[in-house]
Amino acid sequence: MALIPIPRQASNIDKAIPVHGYRKAAPGDLIDLAIESRIARIIKRSAIGGDDPFFVADLGQIVRQHRRWIQNMPGIRPFYAVKCNCDPTFLKVLADLGTGFDCASIEEMRAVLNLGVDPGRILFANPCKAPAAVAFAREVGVLRTTFDNIDELDTIKTHMPDAQLLLRIYANDEGAFICLGEKFGAHLDTTEELLARAWELGLNVVGVSFHVGTGATNPSSFCNAIKDARLVFQQAERLGFHPKILDIGGGFQDNCFESMAPIIRDAIRAEFPTGTTVVAEPGRFYARSVYTLVCRVISRRRQLGSAAASGIPDMLYQNDGIYGNFMNVIMEKEIMKPHLLKAKKSKAGNLGNPRASEISEKGNEMTKSTEHRYSIWGPTCDSTDCVVREVSLESEVKVGDWFKYKDMGAYTSTTATQFNGFSSECDIIYVNSEALPDV
Ligand SMILES: Cc1ncc(COP(=O)(O)O)c(C=O)c1O
């Protein structure tokens, strides 16, 4: 384990908690130590305060995910999808690791450029852009972008005539958490016409992109899209273009990455000649496991009367919910797994070693004790703001207790709202359990 070098641009890498004294600490222990010390500080500062959730980000986990990417997708350059998590410190580590960036908006481009990243490392991967955004991109030197419709070509001709264009084609994994095919991607019966129009306008088509959907599970959706991309390459070549770039988009998940990667690699090898530049736009794969979220119980409703008699679980209200960092409960039907942290009655009054909750790995199934059953709700006044429908924990939970949620880095802080006046800003504590390459 080592400290990350001081960055050139503003970020919080230099604030990552040093590992001095914790050299043998596993990444999970380092995160728990950071949580413990933050909670101790909150409690010391004020008996009442600490009403905001906070994240702990292990920057070393970014390095490990990047290593996994390189091992399993050799030669396929990742352009990290900034929409997934735009924390500048996270982006800075990726920049130092040498990834490219997929940006969808002016603000995302700004965030990356502010880190000193060369515009040539940015792909403006939004096929339906506002004219002002296209003009901005050209002004700052971002020339590679996607399109999937005729009108977009007109916008590009006006505001970025020297664009290097990728034709985004339709692709869909029915099993993905969120399918994107309904909104984006040209169907194969339209690609020839789109390419012909690009040719007519004197634009330069340099490749093809697709996205099978975020949280994909089926490697054949990639294989089908790769075959389709090959057909579109041939259509483009017939018109006189010289396409060189295949962009296989995002959709990669932690739990099936190693099994899907060789199938995707084989499909590319079977369809495309060597010399094709292959890139990807992973988001979730890089960000999800880096962040742990810590929430505090702010209120509790113990059931009384008929609700208690009929066994309805007691209700806990925590300081973050679906309008904050838990949007995935709605968007992706994610089953959240709270880990209860209980205060240790030590001399220092610190939080003790986090005690794992009784949740099975499969989710919120009640596998053991049924004594302390709860539903967990967010802080807003909306009744859809339910984070966990039912969970069984090993001990009673009281107001002021804390929950830890792992794997909270993807589409959490970037989708959080300020609904009901609850802030979407969260403190992030950085730890680092790995060495970064020198930059
Ligand atoms: C164009 C584009 N690229 C990349 C991504 C990142 O996808 P994922 O997080 O599933 O890897 C998305 C997510 O929606 C996207 O729309």
Automatic annotation (TrEMBL):
Keyword Manganese (UniProt): no
Domain Orn/DAP/Arg decarboxylase 2 N-terminal: 59-287
Catalytic residues of the enzyme: 381 (proton donor)
GO CC term, one of those recorded: cytoplasm
Cofactor: pyridoxal 5'-phosphate
Enzyme class: lyase
A Pfam family of this chain: Orn_Arg_deC_N
Sites of N6-(pyridoxal phosphate)lysine modification: 83
Pathway: Amine and polyamine biosynthesis; putrescine biosynthesis via L-ornithine pathway; putrescine from L-ornithine: step 1/1
GO MF term list: ornithine decarboxylase activity
GO terms under biological process: putrescine biosynthetic process from arginine, via ornithine
Subunit details: Homodimer. Only the dimer is catalytically active, as the active sites are constructed of residues from both monomers.
PANTHER family assigned: ARGININE/DIAMINOPIMELATE/ORNITHINE DECARBOXYLASE, ORNITHINE DECARBOXYLASE 1-RELATED
Similarity comment: Belongs to the Orn/Lys/Arg decarboxylase class-II family.
Stated name of the protein: ornithine decarboxylase
